[in-house]
């Protein structure tokens, strides 16, 4: 695949009256506007976009070199870019524009809108394990009780191993 420099479009090359240097009229690869550049800029590989705004827009989202298919992790939880989900689940998005995957999976599993008071609990305690059978919606009171029971069960298993 060629670079963007190879895809530059020269509309025309002309020499303005009273000037010693030729000018290039280029076509912006993002918006399609025509703009002028000097030969020295053309030789340096410029003349791809008409301004910084088009350059930034072209290098955002999936066109960015750091794009990771719209996912990232935060505090052991997987987050999905809301542009990759159906609009009916956009209410789950944070200010950053990302939706916690466990909340998305739970909303799909239970086929209802999640409220801010709903807590999505991972049954096995692993935050990155977002299988539908591993997720349960609980309120704050039940969540603490459930977590406490899991910790007790884990401690019992540890003590049983020590006895053997």
Describe, in plain words, how this protein is organized in 3D.
The chain is α+β, with helices and mostly antiparallel strands. The protein folds into two domains: 7-50, no CATH class; 71-163, no CATH class. Helices cover 28% and strands 21% of the residues. A hairpin with a 6-residue loop joins β2 and β3 (34-37). The longest helix has 24 residues, at 140-163. The radius of gyration is 27 Å and the shape is elongated. The N and C termini lie far apart (62 Å). The mean pLDDT is 87.
Percent of residues in helices: 25-40%
| Lateral arrangement of strands in the main beta sheet | 1-2-3
Judged by helices, strands and strand pairing, the structural class is alpha+beta
Question: How many strands in all?
Answer: 8
Characterize this entry briefly.
With 164 residues, the chain is α+β, with helices and mostly antiparallel strands.
Index terms:
4 helices, elongated, three-stranded antiparallel beta sheet, about 160 residues, 2 domains, alpha+beta, 8 strands
Q: How do the strands and helices of this protein lay out in sequence?
A:
Elements: E1 9-14, E2 23-27, E3 34-37, H1 39-43, H2 52-58, E4 71-74, E5 77-81, E6 98-100, H3 101-110, E7 119-122, E8 135-138, H4 140-163
Antiparallel strand pairs: 1-2, 2-3, 4-5, 5-6, 7-8
